Amino acid sequence: MITCLPRLMAAHLLFVTGKGGTGKTTIAMALARAAAAQGRRVALVEVDNQRPSLTEHFGQAPAYHPVNVGPNLWIGNVTWDEALEEWLGRVVPVPRMTKLILGNRMVRLFLEVTPGSREVVTFARLQQLTEAYDLVVVDMPASGHAVSFFRVFTRASSLFSAGPVRHSLDDALRLLAAPTTHLVFASLPEEMVVNETIETWQRLREGIPSLSMPLVVLNQGLIPTLSPGESVLLERLARLEPGPGADGRRRAELLRAGRWEAQREQATGEAMERLGQFTTMELLVAPLMGAGGGAADRIRRMEALLVRSGALLPGRPGAAA
Amino acid sequence: MSAPLCLDRLVRERRIIVCVGSGGVGKTTSAAALGLRAARLGRRVLVLTIDPARRLANALGLPSFGNEIRQVPLPDLPEGGGLWACMLDTRATFDDLIRRMSPDEAAREAVLANRVYRVIADNFAGSQEYMATERLYDVHASGAYDLIVLDTPPVKNALDFLDSPGRLARFMDRQIVRWFLAPYDEGRVFGRVLVGTSGVVFRLLGVVFGREFLEDLTSFFQDFRHLMDGFHERHEAVLALFADPGTAFVVVAAPNEPSVDVAGFFREEIIARRLPLAGFIVNQVHECGTEVLDAQALLGARAQAAGGDLPAHTVLSLSARLESAHRRLASVAQAEGPFLARLAAMAQGGPFLRVVPLLDVPIRDLDGLLELCARLFPPADGDAPIAP
Asked: 276-315 in A: which are within 8 Å (CB) of B?
């Protein structure tokens, strides 16, 4: 039982972060679908992605103004250009002035590269979306960038002592600190990936102590079930010569598969232990899957796992069985 | 036209190898293995890495990496061969650069102490990539190595660092700085009347960002502009280095969708920029037949003999496990098929494609790295082209 899942379903803003290949997008989609199935109006968005990964799955590209792709579900892409224009339009409420600023190449370049301005306008847009939808699920860029994305809010605060940028930074920090905002990690049972998850978690906790980071999904894991006796026997058999001919090859292949699975179980066990030791996140192991129905099937299975692990009830966000 | 480039000729002949690809595909270990191979062929090699797992530092026999270049203790190297490693510390490299390029101590201290600089050096997306190329330029210019293997950061939208030194350099754009400093150069500062479009925009920026920030930024630009020409010249030189025929790009991938997507993207970018694409290394490939195997029939008798002292049910339960593990492995291997096919298609017409089966255990020490090396360079391979 993952106790934070009902809370995540009742949230207003969920960030999903992780390295490439950790299943981050699958998890974001599954969270969005699960919440939509509970009757919440959900916007699933990417952040300024030039090649939106949601496009292929939904058969249409996410737009700045989210497009409806199913019951209670919208997909969007918070592009920097549009977010900037909208933000400037609000802080400089004279259209002529806004145009003047945006029309100046130097200023655009300047805005684009000034520390924090990208993040500030992106976040201002996310905040707007939380007002238009019950839940906004953000499929974040890879997690190295998540650290700089979030830490910019604390770092940039030292640069801007007044003005609209400062106000937006303060708004962003308040939204991050809200009890209805959470960050979910996607990870894999591999040493490097787990280390990166732990490091990101620690750096974010130092930078933004009030940010809620309740859950890590350990994707493609296998919870250890090999008994000590089985392990001993497996190693003994693996040490024997497999023998000649086709049967020898088959024996070798069986044992290789056994050792591969044992290795995967061990790695999952180590990852669970390290994540448990160095973070306070709840841990959900999503089992390793092979060939199957492709992406759509992966998302359905991930959603089913979330519903099962959180004992989620349809139509009742925040309630558990 | 020379023969197609194989992996072996690559590490024998090239002077720079750039490994690109998504994260988590064994890019850093592959870079280390390529370096190890070249060192064992008698070359002096530096592996310049970004974010090695502690495990890799251990595997290379180093207590930890640092911005310093350290020699990797390797036994049995031929005359002249040697392996060095260095982990890039963005901040330290940046500070070094400022120190070297500053005309005098006062200019240097002014930049290093500036609040805007500190935030930029720590936070700019792209500064890591930029600093990697910066460091590459330096070590290459030193002439101390026969081969430099550059392990790039796991970026998705990727070859930005080739276009420009990223957001960082755009920030240092000559035009921006000139535009920004113009009112100051003309002796006008805040509090005085700024005229023209520039003046209006400038005042608006003051409203949006706060006057204090603009003042900080202006003093940063003033301190920094002496360094800028040097920045741009060096970047030109780095670009020339990447396009040099002595350089090779190797795309490292794993057989899964995100990684192959990224590999395809890199391939297109490298070709579009007319950079030397050498080939593809595909790591972490699962190999397994699809035949259904009967564990009892194949291993029952052996297991009975080998497990006599173990609990009675062990033989049966292990048999069941082996069969299910085999089904799982076969399914995982099968799922990788289409991705391997896509990579093979990408490698058609020249680049090599080296498929590296998943290692039985993760690389923890030098032996593990040597094992990877053996799989990257099978003995039979020799100088024959690997390309299809």
From this structure: 288-292, 295
